Structure formats: C-alpha cells, structure tokens
rRNA cytosine-C5-methyltransferase (Nocardioides pinisoli), 441 residues
Amino acid sequence: MSDRRRPVDKARRAALDVLTAVRTDDAYANLVLPQVLRKHGLQGRDAALATELASGAIRMHGLYDAVIDACLTKPRLQPEVRDVLRLGTHQLLSMRVPDHAAISTSVDLVRATVGHGPAGLVNAVLRAVSRRDLAAWASEVAPDRQDAPHAHLAVARSHPRWVVEALGEALTARVGSDDELDALLEADNAPPRVTLVARPGMATVEELEASGGTRTGRSPYAVTLAGGDPAAVPAVAEGRAGVQDEGSQLVALALAEATVAGRDERWLDLCAGPGGKAALLAAIAAQRGAVLVANERQPHRAALVASALRAAPDGAAHVLAGDGMRPAWVPGTFDRVLVDAPCSGLGALRRRPESRWRRTPGDVEELVAIQQVLLDAALESVRPGGVVVYATCSPVVAETSDVVEAVLGRRGDTDEVDRFQLWPHRDGTDAMFAATLRRRA
C-alpha cells in the first residue's frame, strides 16, 4: 500500500476537515462539525476526540503558530501542513496524548492528505514542540509580561491583542480593575460544559438528572452533562429540553421575572434566532397564559427558531421573519420584549473558537449602530409600564453599557431597573450582559 493511501485515524482526519472548512470556506466550527462527524461515522469517544482536536486547534492557533514558527528554519508552510501541525501541537501541549502517538498520527495524516514530501518536516517540528510543555513555550514565544502585559497575554492566551484590551476594559468597568484578565482569557480557552435546559411544563430537571445531568444552581431549569451526546437525551431529541448555556437561560429569566404594571399577555423576542431563549420564554409564557412572538430577520434563522419551538404548547408562540429594526407591528403592542442583539460574541469564545480570529474593532463599531437601533425599536414596541431586556453575549463596554446609556440619554420615557454581567471565570457561563429597562407608565 502506498503512503498516500495509508489509513489514518478517523477522528484526526475529521478534525482536519473542520480546520480546512473554517480556513477555506469561513465555516463556523460548531456548524460544520456535526456534518463532518456524520461523514466519518464518528460517535462517542471518537466524536469527542475530533471535537476537542478541532476546537482546541482553532482556539489556540495564535499560540500554536508562534510555537510552530519557533521550530521552523523556514517559516513559510503550506496551509494544509500548518493545519496538521496545529492539530499535532494541540495534542502535545494541551491533551493527554502520548508524544509518540501525537507525532506518528500527524505524520500519517499529512502523508494521506498532502503527500509524502512534508512528512519529515512534520515529524521534526513536532519532535521539537514535544521538548517543552505549554507554559514553557508560552514563556518562550510571548513578549515579556512586565514590559508589555497585553501583548504577552495575547500570545500566551491565544487571543488577538485588541480582544485582550477590550476584555480588560470591560473588567475594569465592571469589577474595578483588570487583575482577573488572565483568568478570563484562560477560561475562554477551556472547553465549555454541555448545559441543558428543561423547558418548564414540557420537561423537568429531575428528568434530565435521570439522563446523567447535574444541577447547576443558578438557573432553576439548568443541568450540566458530564459527557455523551446531548441529542441522545430523550427530552432534547423531542424538543422538550435543549442545549443552552446557563447565562442565556438567565437572560431569558431576567425578562420573565421582571415586574410589569398591568396586562401581561404579549411577549416579544425581537432577534430570536436560533431560538434557544425563545423556546424557554414560550414555555414560561404558556404557563402564564401569555403568547410569545419570536421575530427573526433572516428566513433560514427563522426556520431554526421554528424548529426550537416545535414542542411548545399549541398557540404559545408564533414565528415571524421580519426586520427588528423596522417592526411590522403597532408601537406599544407588547408587555415584555427581549432584544438579544447581534454582537461581537466576545463573551462566548469558549463555544465559538474561530470568532476571536474573525472579529475586528471595525465590526464592533458597525454592530453598535445596529444595537442602538434595535434597542430603540424594542422600547417603541413595549407599552408604558412594560419591560425590555437588552442583552448581548459580549461584555465589551461599547456594546453593553454604552449602548444602554446612549439610548436612554436621548429618551425621556425609560428607566433602567436592573443590570448584570456574567463571566466565564467567575460564573462558569458565557459572558452575558443584560439590562432591564421599563417604559414609564
């Protein structure tokens, strides 16, 4: 059998396919991964290995590239070869894979996908990488921390420098200093727990516990899974429960638990895609005799919302495909409105490994303009005495408190009644921000 046809480990080949799709097609790892796993017929431990390999190599490639380059005599590499080296480096520095297995499987992988030529280079580079651990390499390739703390953290914790600076500013604004910045960045690099939500009236926490879940203690509907495929949990497969970060659950609960004056029958999720918060709100609304309108601008995302709501009680929710910045309904129609605004996603970097490398400061500037329009539209959509919750999966000041204060500053009919910021390193959740606002009666 020729080297080109030599069999390779399916999990590692699947992980490489994910890296290739992210690099060449601007794919999102969490969306392409299930397709790749099905293509290679991976389940259980093999699927978990492929997931960790792909997510970790993408998440940490800033540091890994610096390590790889330090081991090269000529820094120019074929992109396909660099992807293989990233996967090998992740196994050597961040996983419990024996050195010989990480190196030999990487050599096999590059032979099977690129050819025999780069095999020697991959072998030599990964042997050099294996001579130090992750902390030693980070200290070697990152700028001196005393002289350039943000530049050091950008390399050592594998985040773009502007992201490091924006998160440091957010910590300073919320907790008074950025002393926790290293801990926050390290939490961004930790694989997140799988958290489920038991949609009330449709599933119970006890049912999810019986499927291997453990209560989290913050959301009354949340459990975490120690392992396994969440789609194998019957309540999840049937749409009575779902996969949802606890921070997202707490945002939905902030809307559901806020006090409104008078009628409480019509609820709105202004930017509902992909539908997790809408599904939880619809379940709560149904128990109170209220109805949720789940609005989403993009039709394909509206279809995802409809899928998330497939098990909701009859009449509890309606899905609309419309532009939330130009509402189709009469002003003052709703009693409660959630505006989970499009954002940079810098609070969910654990789950979206490629996001940190794709976003730019210019993206934030563009998003802030949209966020302000959406918040204004939400406030116009709620009646006097009703409430609006403005939320983002970003702690960045420009997207959170600055948006709220800018909108409130030009309106004379709204008060802020509550605000919270969650953190991965403190709360074990995505860095969700939420502000509860009330139209004056």
Summary: The chain has a mean pLDDT of 96.
